[in-house]
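Bumping my old thread because nobody answered last time. Still need a sequence for this structure:
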């Protein structure tokens, strides 16, 4: 099949509209880039409220479908040659894996680690959710013809999982020894166009009390695997030297109505209240900032922040908000431990120890009180340079490559013990009759054990 015959359907379960979380943004932006070469439909089963401004800028080869039911999903899938799904889509739409289409699965979010964090205080819900998501994920991994993740570190993790499942079989290895035809890297990306301010729609417009004060911006939701508490405490510690310092949390409620407000959001609000910082030095914006307005908020910030705990989720994460920080050329303070933090450190900002209030205080003061603000400008430059390494158009090249020459992987076969004939044949191939005689006792012993 050549590229002229490839038609792709991209499905996310997240709402696509004025307000979007990372998975929906990723589906939309990947769709925009692929549509310049392949007819592309991006679909969400969630009906979007209001008009979606970004839809006005869709390329000619792209369609956006919102609020689709199973019947429409099936119709669109039948007309596609390839289906790109995020790693929870087969749960409501299992038939997609049985249509003979080229199935691509997006593994950019290793969400099992997030489940462990989110339900850590509820053993019943933790066990149920983990087992369910584990089975859902396995169904996607064993049915996919091609998978993508967000980084080489993630790819190491997923290759390990594929090996444990038995998906890295001799048959798959024979197709491609690099295993890039099984799983490749498509990072979260940065738009090619420069960020812009929308007059009257920025952060300082929404919060006039910020004035010209230095602002630390937390550019997304406050999920349970994040550590806003250390940053709030650091702001309190900085006030004697930087009395007008402000910290703003840009999102407190996911645009997906199925995602509840998480415990850490409430803990952050409670701590800010206990320290008498709420609406004075620390601000929580209710809801979610519209996608098309996010750059206006980011460009009003002085420093972007992101903090998290020492967790497996941290090591294998790929923080989507960090890419927006790069895009807008913001200096970044973040906790160490993930791949992006390694790239940021001493280039676009600093990566700091886990839960270290003093380190955060020193970092904030060191940047904002630096003479001539040379450090701030150097970090801005480094952030923009890193953004140039993650342009969406460049990131999607592995998907283009697959769609130009799509393939089906061999059907998944559960790994079982070889029978006596298979083992004897393998021993014979290695050493002939002599080795068979030497190994006969072992072979028959295994039969008796079984």
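Sorry it took so long. Here it is:
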């Amino acid at each position: 099949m050549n590229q002229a015959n490839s038609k792709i359907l991209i499905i996310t379960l997240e709402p696509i509209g004025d307000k979007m979380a990372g998975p929906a943004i990723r589906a939309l932006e990947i769709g925009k880039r692929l549509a310049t070469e392949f007819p592309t439909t991006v679909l969400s089963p969630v009906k979007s409220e209001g008009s979606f401004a970004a839809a006005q800028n869709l390329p000619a080869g792209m369609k956006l479908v919102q609020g689709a039911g199973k019947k429409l999903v099936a119709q669109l899938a039948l007309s596609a040659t390839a289906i790109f799904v995020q790693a929870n889509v087969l749960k409501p739409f299992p038939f997609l894996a049985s249509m003979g289409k080229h199935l691509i699965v997006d593994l950019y979010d290793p969400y099992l680690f997030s489940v462990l964090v989110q339900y850590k205080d509820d053993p019943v819900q933790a066990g149920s959710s983990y087992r369910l998501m584990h089975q859902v994920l396995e169904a996607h991994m064993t049915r996919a013809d091609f998978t993508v993740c967000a980084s080489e570190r993630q790819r190491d993790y997923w290759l390990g999982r594929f090996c444990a499942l038995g998906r890295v079989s001799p048959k798959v290895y024979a197709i491609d020894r690099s295993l890039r035809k099984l799983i490749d890297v498509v990072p979260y990306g940065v738009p090619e166009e420069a960020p812009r301010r929308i007059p009257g729609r920025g952060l300082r417009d929404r919060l006039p009390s910020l004035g010209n004060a230095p602002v630390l911006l937390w550019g997304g939701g406050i999920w349970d695997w994040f550590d806003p508490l250390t940053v709030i405490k650091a702001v309190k510690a900085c006030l004697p030297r930087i009395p007008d310092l402000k910290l703003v949390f840009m999102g407190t409620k996911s645009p997906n109505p199925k995602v509840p407000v998480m415990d850490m959001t409430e803990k952050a609000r409670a701590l800010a209240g206990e320290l008498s910082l709420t609406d004075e030095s620390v601000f929580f914006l209710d809801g979610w900032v519209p996608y098309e307005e996010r750059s206006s908020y980011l460009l009003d910030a002085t420093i972007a922040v992101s903090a998290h705990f020492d967790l497996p989720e941290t090591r294998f994460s790929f923080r989507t908000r960090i890419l927006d920080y790069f895009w807008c050329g913001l200096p970044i303070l973040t906790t160490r431990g993930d791949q992006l933090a390694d790239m940021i450190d001493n280039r676009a900002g600093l990566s700091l120890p886990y839960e270290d209030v003093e380190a955060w205080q020193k970092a904030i003061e060191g940047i904002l009180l630096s003479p001539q603000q040379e450090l701030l400008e150097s970090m801005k430059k480094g952030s923009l340079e890193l953004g140039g390494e993650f342009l969406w158009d460049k990131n999607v090249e592995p998907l283009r490559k697959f769609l130009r020459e799509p393939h089906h992987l061999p059907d998944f076969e559960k790994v079982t013990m070889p029978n006596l004939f298979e083992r004897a044949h393998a021993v014979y191939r290695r050493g002939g009759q002599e080795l068979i005689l030497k190994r006969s006792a072992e072979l028959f012993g295994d039969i008796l054990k079984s």
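The longest helix spans residues 420-449. Let me know if any region looks off to you.
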